[in-house]
Amino acid sequence: MDEMVLQVQKFVNVNYAHRPNFGSPVEENGRTSWEIMYALTRALQIELGIENPVNSFGPTTYRLCPTLREGDEHEFVWILQGAMWCKGYSPGGFTGKFGPGTAAGVRKMQEEAGVPVNGIVDPDIFKAMLRMDAYRAVGPSADENVVDMQRYLNGKYYKYTGILPADGNYSRDTNTALIYGLQIESNVAGANGHFGEGTKAATPTIKLGDSRVNHVRLVQYAMYVNNYHPGNFNGTFDEAMQTRLKAFQGFHMLPQNGIVDLNTWMSLLVSTGNPDVKGKGIDTSNTITHSRAETLKADGREMVGRYLTGSFALSSAELNTLFSNGFRVFPIYQRFADNVEWFSYNQGIIDARDAVRAATALKFPYETVIYFAVDFDVSLSQINSHIIPYFDGVNEEIRRNRNAGASYRIGVYGPRYACTVLMNQNLTVYSFVSGMSTGFFGNKGHVLPLNWAFNQVKEHFIGSGSGRLAIDNLIVSNRDRGVNAKDHSVESPEVNDYVQYNKPFIEKLRELYNFSYENSDGDNRIANILVLNYLRSENYNSSVWTPIAGAIDSTFVETAERRFGKPSSFPVLYDPVTGTDMDFMHMAATLNAILFQKTFIIGDFTASLSDFAGWLGDLITVVDNAKDAYKNGNFTSVYSAARHYIGHTSDAAGTFPLEDLLGDMDAINIGRALDMNDRTSNLFEEMDTYYRLGYRRRFKAAARARFDYNREQFYNEAKRYLTTSQPAIAFARSQFKSAFNVSDWTDNEADSVAQAFRDVCAEWLDKED
After folding, report:
1. Do 570 and 688 share a structural domain?
2. How far separated are the first and last CA of the chain, in Å rounded?
3. 604 or 583, which is more confident?
4. Res. 687 pLDDT band, cuts 50 70 90
5. CA distance to 684, 705, 726, per residue, from 690 (Å)
6. I need a labelling partner for 128 at 20 to 30 A (CA). Which of 23, 173, 494, 706 fits?
7. What is the DSSP letter of 191?
8. 504 lies in which domain range?
9. Where is the Rv2525c-like glycoside hydrolase-like domain (predicted)?
10. Looking at residue 650, what is its pLDDT?
11. pLDDT tops 70 at residue 598
12. pLDDT given for residue 679 in this prediction
């Protein structure tokens, strides 16, 4: 405890704690802190006549603040002396009298801060005294060269920047001061410490032997804090400095010309570098179609980052599109990674498991780097408390999978500082830097990590029409080259049950697809439809299916039957999650309808006749089950009856068993993965991939693809379809009811069935990890 700090705390509480709007008394513990500095700031504002004091020393406080000098005696001196004791500069007493001791303490502070030494306290000095900033080396990483630089910057530019720390640690304040220095030396109007368009226009090019000493010295300081020692700090641009500058340029993927041009200035001072420099890579939430691939090729891009999961997830068909157009791809994993509460050791294990499943399902080759996102301005304390444990969990799960034969590597997407800490902890192999967040604590005043693979520098649109897409411009270091092809030998250790039980089905499906491909003149799109035509032909071939799923190619079906027999002779498709034998013929009919793509707008939702082939058709038929069971006294309500019959697993009669519910969700998910405008889209590959891993989160994937990732939409869509009078839907509904002998229902009965559908699906959603 410091006795003089304790006296200052008591002084503040006695003289100001009772004043209007001052706030709570400070803790009297004899320890200096921001709390006492803020309290002294508010005390100063009260003495200045400011009615609503606040913690910040803002423009009004600065304008009203008096200049103090030796001989003064009043309340302002008490506040100054209190601040000096708390800041570590002895004023020689705590008396309210500005004597020689106070003047000596002020001169000491001025000398250490690097500003003119005169013992006078003007508003800049008073403001600095009321801050916790240090003016001497602090901490194990403090660097005396940085202290000298900070003092130099204060001395030259403090009237613009305020008096900034001189503690030997490169920080956002020091970075801001360097930009101010460039602006002032380049005569930029309205210097503000931000590297904007005016600064770009005024920034000079500096070369070997340049005589602009102040500019050269700023470059030297900027090089030093970026870990490239220029050889001296005297403002002389010599050959040693040029050699180190070329090394810096090479690290930042700039032309190694030894000239400080605009791009080099910005790479020295801004986390994006010059964001208008076009990189070789992009990341995007947009699905890459052939049209968008053409846009990217025309724009000179080579690398594409896409998400493994979530609303913008990469599909196998899209991956085929990227590879067939010559792109290399790197995967990104992000789930709710935009706040610190998400991150923990256990969450790291869960997310790594999810990422491995997705990467394996897409057949990313082993050793591919997966970038796990830290998508917010994370602080040092949060890195230590949450981010490091999270990546410990990620590493633990990846090691477990490596031991089981599924080996991926770990990268991080995040601010510079978080990337650097994780690299130093050996928790990541490469970093994908979120550089365009230039104001982040973790970017401003921090250097690029040594293992950076990608630097995200600008968000914008490119292309037009169907080729238009939103991209983040990425500078590529070539450390991580991504991948350019699938590896079909990739196998997850989690698919053993699937492989064990379903190998006969998959092998026969492969034969069927190859046969269909041969009978479609090598057109994958036609082959996909022919496979589905055959698989649905035995049980889903009546006239009611034609407007919903299209006509069956009977010629092909007859030819396929001679080769493979009836679809019912196919081996069983087994679902390891539920232990259910899937009704793959029902799933094929639903998927055939989805690919037939009959959609139109009704009010504020998009309707599709394909829904009649899947979940909606099953709901229509289950209405009679529920009404009859309720009427016969087997259930207390239509809702409870429908809740039982939707996705039931018992032997009780019902038209919407579990295998149909699973098949409906699977058809939605496989249909999303298939792109019928993509000639490489392959039904066998998508089904094989999906039934190896994708089925484990089938309800969440279907909720995202068809129900706006909102469980309430299961109810909304069902209720609208069952009750709307829109002609096309009402006609299709009547045809379906007639074909399956379903009687009319009331709106209340429809509401009960829709609620039951929502609640059954919600139950499954909650079961999935």
Report:
1. yes
2. 51
3. 583
4. confident
5. 10, 15, 35
6. 23
7. -
8. 493-767
9. 295-456
10. 60
11. no
12. 60
Contact 475, 279 (CB under 8 A): yes
- Based on the structure, what is the number of domains in the chain? 4
DSSP 423-441: HHTT--SEEEE-TT-TT-T
Residues 524 and 605 occupy one common structural domain: yes
Average pLDDT, the chain: 91
For the chain, the C-alpha Rg in angstroms (whole number) is 34
Amino acid at 185: E
Q: Are residues 263 and 341 in the same domain?
A: no
Average pLDDT score over residue span 28-50? 96
Do 546 and 613 lie in a common domain? yes
Q: Give the whole-number percent of the chain exceeding pLDDT 70.
A: 95
What are the tokens at 710? 């909102």
In a domain, 322, yes or no: yes
Q: Does a structural domain hold residue 487?
A: no
Q: What is the mean pLDDT of residues 454-474?
A: 96
- Enumerate long-range contacts of 506-511, CB under 8 Å, 24 or more apart: 506/688, 506/691, 508/564, 508/570, 508/571, 509/570, 509/684, 509/687, 509/688, 510/684, 510/688, 511/564
- Residue 458's SS3 state is strand
* Residue corresponding to tokens 């930009």: 179
**Residue 677, pLDDT score:** 53
481 lies in some domain? no
Q: Per the domain annotation, does 367 fall within a domain?
A: yes
The DSSP H or E segment spanning 80 is helix 75-87
What percent of the chain shows pLDDT beyond 90?
71
Per residue in 472-504, pLDDT tens? Answer: 999 999 999 999 998 877 766 555 555 667 788
Distance (Å, whole) CA 476 – CA 253: 8
Co-location of 108 and 33 in the same domain: yes
Q: Using CA atoms, how far apart are residues 558 and 545, in angstroms rounded to an integer? A: 19
Name the one residue in this structure whose structure tokens are 């279907």: 702
- Report yes or no: 364 and 331 within 8 Å, Cβ to Cβ: yes
Measured N-to-C along each axis, helices 683-692 and 496-518 cross at an angle, to the nearest 10 degrees, of 170
Which position has the token pair 């004791």?
Answer: 85
Half-sphere exposure of 209 (CA within 13 A, CB side): 0
Q: Give residue 667's identity as a one-letter amino acid code.
A: A
Boundary-marking domain end, from 442, 476, 510:
476
* Confidence at residue 441, expressed as pLDDT on a 0 to 100 scale: 86
